[in-house]
Design goal:
This protein has 305 residues and is α/β, with parallel strands linked by helices. It has twelve helices and 13 strands. Helix 1 links the parallel strand 1 and strand 2.
Length: 305
Amino acid sequence: MRTFLTGATGYIGSAVLDTLLRNRHEVTALVRDPEKAERLRLRGVHAVVGELSVPKTYAQAAEASDAIIHTALDRSKRAVEVDRQAIDALLGAAIRHAARGQPVSVVYTSGVWVLGNTVGQATEEAPLRPTPHAAWRPDHEKLVLDAGRGRTLRTSVIRPGIVYGGARGIIGDLLKDAANGLVRVIGDGRNHWACVYDRDLADLYVRVAAGPEASGIFHATDEADERVGDIVAEVARQAKMQPDIRNVPIEEARAKLGAYADALALNQIVRSARAKALGWAPALHSVSGNVARLLEEFRAQREAA
C-alpha cells in the first residue's frame, strides 16, 4: 500500500512510520528538515521536504497515495489555522485520488481531551466536552468525517490517550523530571489519565489505514484507568534517587501553563471498543506496571539522540 504520512519524525508519527515499514508499506513522508529527509531516505522512505502550511509542497505526493495519515501538528501560534489548511489539502488530494475510482483512506489525529472530564466509561459515542486546550479539535474531526461519504473515500479519526514510550511526551517528561529530582503534579493526583503505548497506538493507525471497513472515530487507550498519583509514585520509586513530588494547585498551574494545565488535570476513563473490534489488542496495559521498561527505552533514546 502506498501511504502518505505527515509528522514522520514526531512522537506519534515516528512510531507509525516504524510500523508502516514493518508492514511493508511504500511510505512517502512529509518533513521540514532536509537532514531528517535524508535519514528517512536511508530507511527506504520517499521523503518530501515541505511545510504543512504550503500545500503545494506535498499535495501531489498525497494524491498519489492509497492512504493518508496525518499525525503532524504545527507548533507555532498558527497551529489551528495550519492544521485546517492541511486537512483541506489532504482531503482534496484524497478526493482527487478517489475520483479516479481508486479507494483511498484518510486517518486524522485528534485526542481524548475532546471528551473533557468523562462521566462513566467514555466510548466513541460519548458527548464532547473539550477542554479549552482542545476546543478547536471537534470542528476539525467533523471536517474529516463529513468528507468520507463516498464509497471510495474512507475517513477516520483516531483519538489517542496520553502517549507513553521512548523519551518524548508527557510520560517521558515525568521520567526526566524524576531523574532531575522534582516532579510536579497538578492537583491532588487522584484524577485518572487515559494512556496508550506508542507502539500499540501505531498498530492501530496501520489497521485503520489499511482496513477496508474501518471508518469513523477510534479511541486508543490501554484502559488501565490509572490515577496520576499512582503513576508518579511508581516513577519515583524506580528513580535512582527519590525525587521530591510537589502537588501544584490548579490556579498556580494555569498561571504558568495556561489551558494546558486544565488538560493535564482532566479526569478520564476512556474505552476503545471500536478499535478492539478491528482486532486491536494493546501489548502494554499500564504505565505504572511498565516503568522499568519505559525507563530503559527513555535512556536508550536519550543516549542515541
